Amino acid sequence: MITINKKDVTGTSATSLADAVSYRMNARREGKSFVLTNGCFDLVHAGHVFSLTEASGFGDYLWVAMNSDASVRLLKGDHRPVLPEEERAYLLNSLSCVSGVTLFDGQRLTKEILALQPDVYVKSGDYTEETIDQEERKALLSVGASIKFVPFLEGLSTSSLIDKILTLPQTGKK
User: Fold this and answer.
1) What is the pTM of this model?
2) Is 174 domain-assigned?
């Protein structure tokens, strides 16, 4: 049996915005493309992994701007996130398609877009250029980023996963 100390999966998984910008500038110097995506990743599931894998195909490095716990609460309510930000960042950084993760506290990503200046920005296919936040869209256009969409897999969402868990029979077994 392997024991994992909780400190092994917390505290070191997310990169500061300043360090992410440094990583991005190094990618630019190397002539590599930098892809940005974002989300809550409240309870990481197959739909998330599919979207991230697809997004990574648009460039050399995939960076994830992940909503902080405070930001998720603003967007989803006080009962969320299911997993704390340290664990969510650890899970995302464990994926081979993800180059790094940066937390953001706001409801919008405009500041991070302007700082990171991605070559490509990727959202799931449940969005369109008309439905993404227009302030973020303006920021993306101002830095010359192309906007791409990856297929959304119906039925694979955090909300549907939570609903499924809540309907499981209570057996008393752990």
Assistant:
1) 0.85
2) no
The label of the residue with tokens 């499981």 reads 168
**Domain that includes residue 109, residue range:** 13-164
Residue 9 confidence (pLDDT): 46
Query: DSSP 3-state assignment of 103?
Result: strand
Q: Alpha-carbon torsion 44, 45, 51, 57, what sign?
A: positive
- Residue type at 112? E
CATH of the domain at 89: 3.40.50.620
Distance CA 81, CA 67 (A): 10
Looking at residue 15, the DSSP 8-state letter turns out to be P
CA distance 99 to 92: 9
Mean pLDDT by groups of 10 residues along the chain of 174 residues: 42 79 96 96 86 97 95 87 91 95 91 97 88 94 97 70 70 66
Distance CA 37, CA 28 (A): 17
- CA-based nearest residue to 146, from 51, 25, 33: 33
